[in-house]
Amino acid sequence: MVLKCKNSNLEALLMFFIFSMVLFFPSLTMILLGQSSFTPGIVAASLCIIFILGIYFYLNRTLEFERSTIFVLLMIFFCCFSITLHLFIVNQQLPMLVEIDTNRFIFSFACLFIVALSAFLAALYLKYNSQNSHFYGAVKVSFIILLINGLISLTKIDFLATGLAKPTFLFLEPSHFALVLTPFLIYFCLTLSRYKALLLLLVVGGWAGYIQNLTLLIGVMLAFTISTRHNLIFAISLFILFLAALIAIFGIDSLSYFTDRLVLSGDNDNLSVLVLFQGWQNAIETLTTQSYLGGGFQQFGVTTVSGSVSDKLYSLLGFNINQFDGGATAPKLVGEFGVFGIAFLCCYLVFYLRIFLRLRKKKSFDKMDIFFYAIFLASFLEFFIRGVGYFSPLMYIFLISIFYFTVQKSKIKLEKNESNC
After folding, report:
1. 8 A C-beta contact, residue 258 and residue 217
2. Which of 197, 214, 309, 381 could form an SS bridge with 192, CB 3.0 to 4.6 Å?
């Protein structure tokens, strides 16, 4: 019995380890090692997860691969093959003086395969873990850590010496924190009671207003719209009252940070707006003037066409900014994969609307399903509001959510050796 309890505790630790490696390790790696992206941390976390889960399945489980599991593996290999074939075709169509960054492609391709395989194993483990209480415990503890991180960041003390104006403790900047926090916010707003969810939204919305972060404020609005028990008109009215309260507390001048970012125009001098506008303009210019197939995987800013907004940013700063990530993931996809990127986004939005309406109807769902639905809905922020590239914590768990729902009807049989203590 003691051995069974120890196994249960080890499984709980393994669950929390997976969450920690995905949510916090990439950001800490980025800060402590002075990296410019999440990629090194995400890849290192993925390798650790592959290694540990590989041993876990080998020692404790017997997997019988059914159709859905084999389908996911084939899908991963097919996507990798398609990405390579696409780049080869694009390379034949590029203008004479434009060259593909081969080293960047090879490195990113290897990273993509590692991350996809890791996300697949994590999806299998999270779905078929015999102790679901471990999953919920890891979700709660991770959310508490995120809330504590938010409270610490209110001090605006730069504990990790990032040198930035808005240090966010375990995260380099508030937007990175917002992208990780939002799926948890949506999940708990859907699973907590009405008043607890409203209190949570007020606290997180107040944090976003005080720190001045539009990404998280949109995340709060998204969580409120999804979880509210009232109709959408009433929900919008309540959100307007919330904004009025923010104005009364922080003053009208504090809203200039948000209003400046809502004017989506290349004539706007706000850097955040210009970066996002630059991504879409460069993507559209690439499709209309160079190739409807785009510039190739991870070639945004290399083979893609630069527009007038890029020139404006360079004149303002004296250097290029966010030229590789597109400002958001959606324009990056369009710029790199052309019509295929547009087709993917259309499919994404169709599924997004279906999931949104399904949750709004308040049908009965398993809590684990709700969590992965929340991840899918939160990914909207990274696709269209504030993207940091393909390799980020939110994109990683977004990939897990896709694999999770693909294999959830699979009949993988696991030999269970532990019991509740």
Report:
1. yes
2. 197
pLDDT of residue 311: 87
42 Cβ contact partners less than 8 Å away, ≥ 6 residues apart = 26, 111, 115, 391, 392, 393, 396
Q: How far apart are CA 162 and CA 355, in angstroms?
A: 38
Query: What's the CA gap between 258 and 270, in Å, rounded?
Result: 11
Answer for the pair 263, 221: CB distance below 8 angstroms, yes or no: no
76-133: per-residue pLDDT in tens? 999 999 999 999 999 998 887 789 999 999 999 999 999 999 999 999 888 777 557 8
Q: Where do runs of H (alpha helix) occur along 192-305?
A: 194-211, 214-227, 232-250, 256-261, 271-289
Top mean pLDDT of 86-90, 264-268, 270-274, 317-321 is at: 86-90
The residue behind tokens 């009671």 is 193
30: alpha, beta or left? (left if phi > 0; alpha if psi -120 to 50)? alpha
Closest CA to 276 of 327, 310, 336, 335: 327
CA–CA dist 208, 230 (Å, integer): 24
CA distance 41 to 20: 12
Non-local CB neighbours of 248 within 8 Å, separated by 6+ positions: none
CB 72 within 8 A of CB 403: yes
Amino acid type, 317: L
Half-sphere exposure at residue 308, Cβ-oriented, CA atoms within 13 angstroms: 4
User: Which pair of tokens denotes residue 126?
Assistant: 């999270």
Name the β-bridge partners of 168: 171
Number of H helices, E strands in the chain: 17, 0
Q: Convert the pLDDT of each residue in 124-159 to its tens digit.
A: 888 777 557 888 999 999 999 999 999 999 998 999
Beta bridge partners of 171: 168
Eight-state DSSP code of residue 305: P
* Exposed e or buried b per residue across 48-75, where buried means at least 16 C-beta atoms within 10 angstroms of its C-beta: ebbebbeebbeebbeeeeeebbeebeee
Tokens of 45: 């976390």
Structure tokens at 154: 């209110």
> Do residues 303 and 94 lie in contact, with contact meaning Cβ atoms separated by under 8 Å?
yes
At 253, the pLDDT band (50, 70, 90 cuts) reads low
DSSP SS3 for 171: strand
CA neighbours closer than 13 Å in the CB half-sphere of residue 352: 17
Q: Supply the pTM of this predicted model.
A: 0.90
17: its two tokens: 């380890």
